[in-house]
Structure formats: C-alpha cells, structure tokens
Amino acid sequence: MDEKEYAQTIAEIREWLVKIDTNQTHQTNLLETINTQATNAFAKADNAEDKADKALSLAQRNEENFDNYVENERTGRRWLIGILITIGLALLPIMNSFYM
Q1: pTM score, two decimals?
Q2: 53-80 burial by CB neighbour count: b if 16+ within 10 A, else e?
Q3: Per-domain residue ranges for the chain?
Q4: Between 33 and 97, the higher pLDDT residue
Q5: Confidence band for 98, pLDDT divided at 50, 70 and 90
C-alpha cells in the first residue's frame, strides 16, 4: 500500500470513530434521559403509594365509624321498641277493662 491508500484508510477509520463517538454520545444522552425519567417515575410512585396509604386509612376509619353508627341505630331502635312494648303492656289492662 502506498501512502495515499494509508491516508485514505486512516480517514475512513477516523470517520468510523467519529460515527461511533457520536452514537455513543447519543446513547449516553438517551440513558441519562431514561435515568431522569425513571427517577421521576419512582418519586411519583412513592407519592402515589403515600396517598393510597392515607386513603386506605381514611376508608378504614370511615368503615369503623359507619359500623359504630349502625350499632348505635340498632341500640336506639331496641330502646324505642322496648319502651313501646312496655307502654302497650301497661295500657293493656286499662284497655281491657274499658272495652270489656
């Protein structure tokens, strides 16, 4: 090979190295972008998990409050039914003597 062919081969090698370097730089930028996006995604996932935990806690408290409310309503109805039965039984002799 003469000097001109060596120069041309070296120029081609340099051209390929520039392309490889450019491609490597582009890939590095893409990886940095992906890393940044992944970090943001992790942060958003952590935030979403915190909000979900708060929502679950609130739902559990509401369930307990509702159960307590239902139990209090049942107790109140029992008292009302008991009072009405007691009054009805107390009035039964009076009504029996009035209508008989």
Answers
A1: 0.53
A2: eeeeeeeeeeeeeeeeeeeeeeeeeeee
A3: 1-72
A4: 33
A5: confident
